[in-house]
Amino acid sequence: MKTPRFTPLVVDLPATVPFVGPEAHMRANGRPFKARIGANESGFGPSPRAIEAICKTAPDAWMYGDSECFDLRNALAAHHGVTPAHIIIGEGIDGLLGLLVRMIVAPGDPVVTSDGAYPTFNYHVAGFGGVLHKVPYRDDHEDPGALLACAEDVGAKLLYFCNPDNPMGTWHSARIVERMVRAVPEGTFMVLDEAYIDAAPPGTAPQIDPDNPRVIRMRTFSKLYGLAGMRVGYAIAAPQVIAMFDRVRNHFGMGRVAQAAALAALQDQAWLRQVQQDVAEARKTLGRIAADNGLYMLPSATSFVALDTGRDGTFARRLVNALMARDVFVRMPFVAPQDRCIRVSTAPDAVLNVFADALPNALAEIEKSSHAR
Amino acid sequence: MKTPRFTPLVVDLPATVPFVGPEAHMRANGRPFKARIGANESGFGPSPRAIEAICKTAPDAWMYGDSECFDLRNALAAHHGVTPAHIIIGEGIDGLLGLLVRMIVAPGDPVVTSDGAYPTFNYHVAGFGGVLHKVPYRDDHEDPGALLACAEDVGAKLLYFCNPDNPMGTWHSARIVERMVRAVPEGTFMVLDEAYIDAAPPGTAPQIDPDNPRVIRMRTFSKLYGLAGMRVGYAIAAPQVIAMFDRVRNHFGMGRVAQAAALAALQDQAWLRQVQQDVAEARKTLGRIAADNGLYMLPSATSFVALDTGRDGTFARRLVNALMARDVFVRMPFVAPQDRCIRVSTAPDAVLNVFADALPNALAEIEKSSHAR
């Protein structure tokens, strides 16, 4: 008998990870990146008030964080016009997705997502033995009608929908999402991942009855709030859904300093608005850089952009690698035909200038090596 | 069909939480505690270098933490004389216990622990449908022989052993633990929870071959390192065991600031030694306070002490409540006969003085109300 006796489920899981982090790439490169614009972190940084809150709380780091996240949950409830019972806080959307999948997906249970959507969701579904059914993108957008039809067809317990979309940056209007929520099949629970909603134009965030038991919306402090390194996400759903998280979550998992940072960030909406403007400006700058290099930038409602190379995944992969070799960290979609694009995060001008300098050289190198073949 | 369709396992879980946190108690009390000595946090605080690291890293909080925790893992490997492949870092021991249970325990699988040992472990076992077999304490110590016999008897997949013990503070010598590790039945994997090992006398930490595939030892920065609020724990085990965590963990779950804080704390061993002395002194002080009030302090190898009331669980519960009413936060063991004790964390003198002032009044109040019946 071999020890430990891992569960058959875990033994059968692949030894892959959803993402290689920028630090791992840098270690492989042997030097730091000059432009870290691949993980959709906010180079505009967190609110100075969040930084101050971190420093101010540091001497109290000997105390566990409030296991009920009372202050942050109440502030979020007021911010969203719901009650604290509608809100669960967790270790980023990643952590909350893991808990949600655990709560709903048993081995063999059907789950629906888009082919090429967030891999960490797929990682959790596989991790609990769920069976993924993937719906193709349609014109680089997630396809609400096809997702609903598939969910109905396979009897999905869970349906994942990201709006605005990662990795393409495209989006659907509030009206379409609202229609989708109304049309979710009986027995299907919809995950609306709104990680990038703060970067979207007005009219993107749907009105959802917070007591609707068929949908959960997920938000994060990791993107426009600039606190990826503190790991704070949250979700809004009906109280009977939120209450179930208490049966499985790591109750003291939310650190004291992280909670203080998120609360301070939430209270500085002026900073968020400034970052929203910065992101919008940076998208324009990236559009110009793309056009200067013969690439096409897809319209984006997120803090990143997809740049269409007009070629295929092999070309885009070589471009990503050529940029990495020039100390520019970017990523790309995983699935064709979206993988003809590279994905670039918005950032301050100084960082985008590094990208602008590296891009023509990277492209020239690829063209040259292509011709040499 | 009711939506969401939670798994049968989750539906059947109780809606209880392992611990009510101090903040929740304070909100119930309507005012802050004057002595927070119930959660075994370190009132001596974290190393000033850890505080400095937190502040210094705060402006970088927009970046995800290294998903491989490279620097911290390497430093811990050097500290323990193992390789980084022997180490997994997670969101406290609580988080690591959850992952480990998930990796090994499927519904119906037998697990062995001591009756009255760490409830959060039990919470995770229940959460994944494991069947707990509980072995009584023996003279307020966990009972290695009985634990091993039970594991053999039920064919346990997992065996939990905490040394030094929480909640009693008692301990076994390295020699006994080493013998236990050798005697773990085939097919049983042993979890050695060493959260409090930094407070134990020399000769308590066993020598364990880091490549032994039958045991994992867990450590934390939450106790003597004084960083409970940053949520950093780690485990040491054979590389093939450690590698399995990568299949299920939240890869970007360890925050950037938390990693920096833990690394700085590890590098300040002088601070740890000072805290070890402070803890030893505080245990003596608590012993005097106990004796002054007719209570008996059990010998302790941890950063807390169990004070024997000489009565029963009902009496101890009333004492805990009477102390809480006097703004002194303490806890108590859950299971008889250990629940005749209250559990008090070590802390600086100023805090222990608050306890010393409150204790006689609390005891007098209980005696008075007893006589009045």
From TrEMBL, chains A, B:
<protein>
    <submittedName>
        <fullName>Histidinol-phosphate aminotransferase</fullName>
    </submittedName>
</protein>
<dbReference type="InterPro" id="IPR015424">
    <property type="entry name" value="PyrdxlP-dep_Trfase"/>
</dbReference>
<keyword id="KW-0032">Aminotransferase</keyword>
<dbReference type="InterPro" id="IPR015421">
    <property type="entry name" value="PyrdxlP-dep_Trfase_major"/>
</dbReference>
<keyword id="KW-0663">Pyridoxal phosphate</keyword>
<dbReference type="GO" id="GO:0008483">
    <property type="term" value="F:transaminase activity"/>
</dbReference>
<dbReference type="Pfam" id="PF00155">
    <property type="entry name" value="Aminotran_1_2"/>
</dbReference>
<feature type="domain" description="Aminotransferase class I/classII large">
    <location>
        <begin position="38"/>
        <end position="359"/>
    </location>
</feature>
<keyword id="KW-0808">Transferase</keyword>
<dbReference type="InterPro" id="IPR050106">
    <property type="entry name" value="HistidinolP_aminotransfase"/>
</dbReference>
<comment type="similarity">
    <text>Belongs to the class-II pyridoxal-phosphate-dependent aminotransferase family. Histidinol-phosphate aminotransferase subfamily.</text>
</comment>
<dbReference type="InterPro" id="IPR015422">
    <property type="entry name" value="PyrdxlP-dep_Trfase_small"/>
</dbReference>
<comment type="pathway">
    <text>Amino-acid biosynthesis.</text>
</comment>
<dbReference type="InterPro" id="IPR004839">
    <property type="entry name" value="Aminotransferase_I/II_large"/>
</dbReference>
